[in-house]
Amino acid sequence: MSTNQISLSLSDEFTINKSPIIYKDVIIDRKSKYTVVWAKVKSKEDVDKFIKNLVTDDYYRKATHNTYAYRVKLDNWSVLEWKNDDWETWAWMCVLRELQRENAIDLLLIVTRYFWWIKLQSDRFKNVINACKMFFEKLK
Fold first, then answer.
1. Cα gap 45→102, rounded to integer Å
2. Distance between CA atoms of residues 126 and 112, nearest Å
3. Is residue 131 part of a domain?
4. What does pTM read for this prediction?
């Protein structure tokens, strides 16, 4: 008789103890500009408050897309993950996947894109992923 087993990762969690930081125009590809913003968050309410505050800045309010994802550890040790693509279809998955790869906890990561009418096709995903990777490299 066989039983199904689930293996959980015991790798170290990536957490941040600093204030929010903005890396503007980390990637410029055919006039599209990508900016990375991150914040330490403990709940969905923290995320909502941060996003609401962020879009009061003209730079982010006028941006074409503010794609984000976050991972928060809950009191029961489960991890809440959520994402929003801000009409940059499927870009949220790129951000969330990078958070998962780094096992980032209590972190909101936003990739902002200014689009200049030159279609990047699938390169836009590569740019979102590279922007996230650049963020993690700068913190290490």
1. 23
2. 14
3. yes
4. 0.75
